[in-house]
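Fold this sequence, please.
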Amino acid sequence: MAKLSLFERRRRRVRTALRKRSGDKPRLSVHRTGQHIYAQIIDDSDGRTVAAASTLGADGSGANVDAAKKVGSDIAEAAKKAGVTTVVFDRGGFLYHGRVKALADAAREGGLEF
């Protein structure tokens, strides 16, 4: 097996820990790039995406904390429409800091529990 990058090792470690403590709760998965940030709520038991939000198609301010806060509030609103109130937070291999933390805080303020 090829040697994994530090990011990939961290992502797998986070995902494994989530599986152990998630039960049957949906997962709020976050992905960020240099230009955008994406969030989706995934029901792993059914293997489908329940709700999603991102900065794609926004006003061009995709790579900052304010845009991440907007995505966090959008995903919380979409989750309410889908009937989801409790999730587990999957930060992937990203550190819980900056845009990822801003998205999580905004989702909590929007009504998601994790």
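The first strand starts at residue 27 and ends at 32. DSSP finds three helices and four strands in the chain.
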